[in-house]
Amino acid sequence: MPEFSGKTSEDNEVQDLKEKLQNDIEILRDQEHGYIRAGYPRFMRLFGRDSLIVSNQLLEIDPSICRSTLEILSEFQGKKFDEVSEEEPGKILHETDPGKPHHPQYEWIPFPYYGSIDSTPWFLITFGKYFQKTSDQEFLNQYRQNIQAVADWIETRINSDPSGFLRYQRKREKGQLFHQGWKDGFFDHLKIQPPVAIVEAQGYCYLALKEATNLLNNEKYNQQAA
Questions:
Q1: For a designed S-S bond to 177, which of 25, 26, 115, 138 qualifies (C-beta 3.0 to 4.6 A apart)?
Q2: Which stretches within the chain are classed as H helix?
Q3: pTM, whole model, 2 decimals?
Q4: Which residues form the domain of 216?
Q5: Residues whose CB falls within 8 Å of the CB of residue 134, separated by 6 or more in sequence, listed in order
Q6: What is the reported pLDDT for 29?
Q7: Is residue 5 part of a domain?
Q8: Residue 1 lies in a domain
Q9: Within its chain, how far is the Cα of 74 from the centroid?
Q10: In order along the chain (226 residues), what is the average pLDDT of each group of 10 residues?
Q11: Do the domain assignments include residue 52?
Q12: For the chain, first and last CA: distance in Å?
């Protein structure tokens, strides 16, 4: 269980809060794979964006959560083009539940499902932060090809888009998210017509390619980020 360091003079209220946070983390943590699930009780599954961001937030407390998240997402990293699941080579998933074939409520959504614009750059950001914290060279060497594939996906998407931005637009109406950023949903609740280039995703791409440069020592991605 992650432990929050603190002064022995802390009052009971603060200590109770820390214990509650520790318990909440353990409830959300997948006991088999070690990642943090997105939310109790409705979203007790692996979400690329959510699990990566939380593992970043817990990096100073328990780096193993970050490592476990990178491991499981590498396992499910996209390998082919699939218009139903929106899988693409190098892409990081939006949502899955390991061992389950489809969404628990919407059977027409296959697992893993890849309809997220920002989980892929967040993978590189998280890997970079993890390596800075741990200097885990063996882990870096083990997943070098996964890092390369993510960087290639970002570069390909940016270079192939006339706008020069990372944008999203679903391929099918049924079973795919209309909006694929952090305020995702099946309908146009944002009143923005695709293709959409959300501003935060552009910043993620910049940072992700910087991290790829540091991790792979590859000037190619440094030039792309610039």
A1: 115
A2: 12-28, 48-57, 63-75, 119-134, 137-142, 144-160, 199-216, 219-225
A3: 0.89
A4: 12-225
A5: 63, 67
A6: 96
A7: no
A8: no
A9: 10
A10: 59 86 93 95 95 96 97 98 96 96 90 97 98 94 96 96 94 88 86 92 96 81 54
A11: yes
A12: 40
* Domain assignment of residue 53, yes or no: yes
Residue showing tokens 């083009």:
81
Q: Are 120 and 147 in contact (CB under 8 A)?
A: no
Which residues pair with residue 46 across a beta bridge? 96
Contact 169, 156 (CB under 8 A): no
Q: Which residues contact 154 (CB under 8 A, 6 or more apart)?
A: 120, 121, 124, 166, 205, 208, 209, 224
Check residue 188 and give its pLDDT.
Answer: 86
Can the peptide bond before residue 41 be classed as cis, meaning omega within 30 degrees of 0? yes
Quick: pLDDT tens for 19-30.
898 999 999 999
Residue 111 maps to which CATH number? 1.50.10.10
